[in-house]
Design goal:
- This protein has 367 residues and is α/β, with parallel strands linked by helices.
- The chain has one domain (50-366): Spore Coat Polysaccharide Biosynthesis Protein SpsA, Chain A (Alpha-Beta Complex), CATH 3.90.550.10.
- It is 44% helix and 16% strand.
- It has helices at 2-43, 68-80, 94-97, 102-112, 130-139, 162-180, 237-252, 258-265, 269-273, 310-329, 332-337, 349-355; strands at residues 48-50, 86-92, 123-127, 143-148, 184-188, 192-194, 208-214, 225-233, 278-280, 286-288, 301-303, 307-308, 365-366.
- An eight-stranded mixed β-sheet has the order 1-4-3-2-5-8-7-9, with helices on both faces. A three-stranded mixed β-sheet has the order 6-11-10. Strands 12-13 form a two-stranded antiparallel sheet.
- The longest helix has 42 residues, at 2-43.
- Residues 1-7, 29-67, 156-160 and 355-367 have low confidence and may be disordered.
- It binds 2-acetamido-2-deoxy-beta-D-glucopyranose (2 copies).
- The site of one 2-acetamido-2-deoxy-beta-D-glucopyranose has 4 residues, from helix 10.
Length: 367
């Protein structure tokens, strides 16, 4: 029957049209996705790609996959932020993430410090490899996976070896992006024990405040020996410019590491021109094994700097925590008289001299 024929033809035509529509839709989705992806990569000039920051199902939200990089960092920072948009940041790699290694001691110090426990809510652990990220998820609630293409930071980064230098620079570039998102940050190495809240010590009108290996006695003195392991930086145009300048200096001083470059550029007049204000933190409050905070009634943080070898570092950090617990257990009258630490022991300046010609591949030097 012709009518049947026509009906069938109409059905077929409709089916074909539907098919075509589906194909077109699928294709445009595909191209849209690709376009979004490439825009995402162009817009984000940071050279890292994030891995999941929370356990996120695959394809959860494909439209966000293109900008998930900034999206997820933004989200982690927001969740950890204090009211004034300040966060505490540390970086972590495989070597320091193992159980009973540096990260556990670091987190313990916040728990046993005076009024430092709540600061854990504001701490973001930036992990540099997959193992560190997995461990972070177990021990902490704010983790962000930072991946640098083509570089594996999962092993101990030996001081001044190429990967160590790359990691340092990567960190500077990353911290600049945090400033650009409007967050002030206290950056702390994980081998710094937090015994008291440092925030009351940060001055409001200063852009950049940094701890020292050696403190000259004057917080404005550019001759101080800063240590990049601990600093508080306010987010503003001056600090963003400074971080850009610092990062760009790696081309001028290709063989120096970030801290040595900082020691040169701190004298640069262009920093004065933009009105960048820097202060050095007193080792009486922000000490380390190079120059300990001798008075336990005043100490905020202690850094396992001037230390060669991860085993030595862990050895002395454990004694440091024991000393602190002992101090806390003392009655107030005795607290005044207990004034110093039993460390450094295995971390010593003598061991630093060995570091100039490292023989043992298993050794790590951190200043
Ligand atoms: C930087 O400067 C611009 C214009 O001078 C201003 O609009 C902006 O708010 C400043 N940003 C910060 C973070 O201070
Ligand atoms: C610390 O030093 C002591 C004495 O030199 C040594 O016996 C011990 O093995 C060292 N411990 C570590 C973990 O390096």
């Amino acid at each position: 029957m012709p009518s049947d024929f026509f009906t069938n033809a109409a059905v077929l035509r409709r089916a074909a049209t539907t098919m075509l529509l589906l194909v077109v839709m699928a294709l445009s989705c595909f191209f849209l996705y690709r376009a979004a992806e490439s825009v995402g990569f162009r817009v984000s000039y940071y050279k890292y790609s994030p891995i999941v920051t929370h356990v996120m199902p695959l394809f959860e939200d494909a439209s966000h996959s293109s900008d998930s990089e900034e999206y997820s960092l933004e989200r982690v920072l927001k969740e950890a932020s204090m009211e004034d948009k300040s966060v505490i940041l540390t970086t972590l790699n495989d070597a320091w993430a193992a159980p009973n290694s540096v990260i556990d001691l670091f987190l313990e110090s916040f728990r046993i410090g005076q009024r430092t426990r709540h600061l854990l809510n504001h701490l973001v652990i930036i992990t540099l490899d997959q193992k560190a990220f997995s461990r972070c998820l177990v021990v902490h609630s704010h983790c962000f996976g930072l991946i640098t293409e083509g570089v594996d930071f999962s092993h101990e980064a030996y001081f001044m070896k190429p990967n160590y230098v790359k990691m340092m620079w990567r960190r500077i570039d990353f911290l600049r992006s945090v400033l650009e998102m409007g967050y002030n940050f206290a950056f702390t190495d994980a081998d710094i024990m937090w015994f008291r809240d440092p925030f009351p010590h940060f001055q409001p009108d200063v852009d950049f405040q940094i701890a020292c290996d050696h403190f000259s006695g004057n917080s404005d003195d550019l001759e101080n020996k800063p240590n990049g392991g601990f600093k508080f930086v306010r987010s503003n145009n001056r600090s963003i410019e400074f971080y850009k300048f610092w990062y760009s200096s790696r081309e001028k001083y290709p063989r120096l590491h970030d801290q040595d470059v900082l020691n040169r550029i701190k004298y640069d007049t262009s920093m004065l021109e933009i009105g960048f204000k820097i202060k050095f933190l007193d080792t009486a409050y922000f000490g380390g094994f190079c120059e300990p905070s001798r008075d336990l009634n005043r100490v905020c943080t202690m850094h396992a700097n001037c230390c060669f070898g991860l085993d030595s570092k862990l050895h002395d950090l454990r004694i440091l925590l024991e000393d602190w617990k002992h101090y806390l257990s003392l009655p107030p009258s005795l607290k005044q008289s207990m004034s110093t630490w039993r460390v450094p022991q295995n971390c010593s300046l003598n061991s630093l001299h060995l570091a100039e010609e490292p023989e043992d591949e298993g050794q790590i030097l951190d200043r």
